[in-house]
Amino acid sequence: AMPAWILQTPAPVLGICYGMQLIAHTFGGIVSKMRNKEEGLIAVTEIIDEKQIRSYRWMNRYDGVVSIPRNFKVTGVTEDDYIAS
Prior knowledge:
Blueprint: H1 4-8, H2 18-26, E1 30-48, E2 51-67, E3 76-78
Antiparallel strand pairs: 1-2, 1-3
Protein backbone atom coordinates (compact mmCIF):
# COMPACT_ATOMS: atom_id res chain seq x y z
CA ALA A 1 0.00 0.00 0.00
CA MET A 2 1.08 3.55 -0.65
CA PRO A 3 1.93 5.58 2.48
CA ALA A 4 -0.58 8.41 2.97
CA TRP A 5 2.18 11.03 3.40
CA ILE A 6 3.18 10.59 -0.26
CA LEU A 7 -0.18 11.91 -1.40
CA GLN A 8 -0.17 14.74 1.14
CA THR A 9 3.17 16.23 0.08
CA PRO A 10 3.03 19.38 -2.07
CA ALA A 11 5.75 17.95 -4.33
CA PRO A 12 4.77 16.27 -7.61
CA VAL A 13 4.72 12.47 -7.47
CA LEU A 14 6.16 10.62 -10.45
CA GLY A 15 5.24 6.97 -10.78
CA ILE A 16 7.62 4.96 -12.93
CA CYS A 17 7.06 1.24 -13.50
CA TYR A 18 5.89 -0.25 -10.19
CA GLY A 19 5.15 3.28 -8.95
CA MET A 20 2.69 3.81 -11.81
CA GLN A 21 1.04 0.50 -10.95
CA LEU A 22 0.82 1.40 -7.25
CA ILE A 23 -0.67 4.83 -7.99
CA ALA A 24 -3.22 3.32 -10.40
CA HIS A 25 -4.20 0.62 -7.90
CA THR A 26 -4.49 3.13 -5.03
CA PHE A 27 -6.95 5.26 -7.03
CA GLY A 28 -9.11 2.37 -8.28
CA GLY A 29 -7.37 1.25 -11.46
CA ILE A 30 -6.68 -2.38 -12.29
CA VAL A 31 -3.22 -3.93 -12.48
CA SER A 32 -2.87 -7.49 -13.76
CA LYS A 33 -0.58 -9.91 -15.53
CA MET A 34 -0.08 -8.89 -19.18
CA ARG A 35 -0.75 -11.20 -22.14
CA ASN A 36 2.86 -10.84 -23.28
CA LYS A 37 5.94 -10.02 -21.23
CA GLU A 38 7.69 -6.79 -22.23
CA GLU A 39 11.43 -7.11 -21.99
CA GLY A 40 14.23 -5.11 -23.56
CA LEU A 41 13.99 -2.04 -25.76
CA ILE A 42 10.29 -1.35 -26.43
CA ALA A 43 8.76 1.30 -28.71
CA VAL A 44 6.52 3.74 -26.82
CA THR A 45 4.22 6.31 -28.42
CA GLU A 46 3.42 9.25 -26.15
CA ILE A 47 1.42 12.44 -26.47
CA ILE A 48 3.64 15.36 -25.42
CA ASP A 49 2.46 18.94 -26.00
CA GLU A 50 -0.31 17.57 -28.22
CA LYS A 51 2.22 15.83 -30.49
CA GLN A 52 2.71 12.09 -30.94
CA ILE A 53 6.29 11.15 -30.16
CA ARG A 54 7.71 7.67 -30.60
CA SER A 55 10.76 6.68 -28.57
CA TYR A 56 12.30 3.54 -27.12
CA ARG A 57 12.34 2.61 -23.43
CA TRP A 58 13.91 -0.24 -21.53
CA MET A 59 11.12 -2.44 -20.15
CA ASN A 60 11.11 -5.56 -18.03
CA ARG A 61 7.61 -6.26 -16.84
CA TYR A 62 5.00 -8.99 -16.61
CA ASP A 63 2.29 -6.90 -14.93
CA GLY A 64 0.74 -3.68 -16.11
CA VAL A 65 -2.07 -1.18 -15.63
CA VAL A 66 -4.97 -2.54 -17.68
CA SER A 67 -7.62 -0.08 -16.52
CA ILE A 68 -6.82 3.45 -15.41
CA PRO A 69 -8.48 5.16 -12.45
CA ARG A 70 -11.32 7.64 -12.93
CA ASN A 71 -10.06 11.13 -13.88
CA PHE A 72 -6.67 9.80 -15.07
CA LYS A 73 -5.64 9.68 -18.72
CA VAL A 74 -3.31 7.52 -20.75
CA THR A 75 -0.50 9.53 -22.32
CA GLY A 76 1.64 6.71 -23.70
CA VAL A 77 1.32 3.14 -24.96
CA THR A 78 3.77 0.47 -26.07
CA GLU A 79 3.75 -1.19 -29.47
CA ASP A 80 1.56 -3.96 -27.96
CA ASP A 81 -0.97 -1.36 -26.71
CA TYR A 82 0.04 -1.66 -23.05
CA ILE A 83 -0.20 1.50 -20.95
CA ALA A 84 3.24 3.05 -20.53
CA SER A 85 2.28 6.43 -19.03
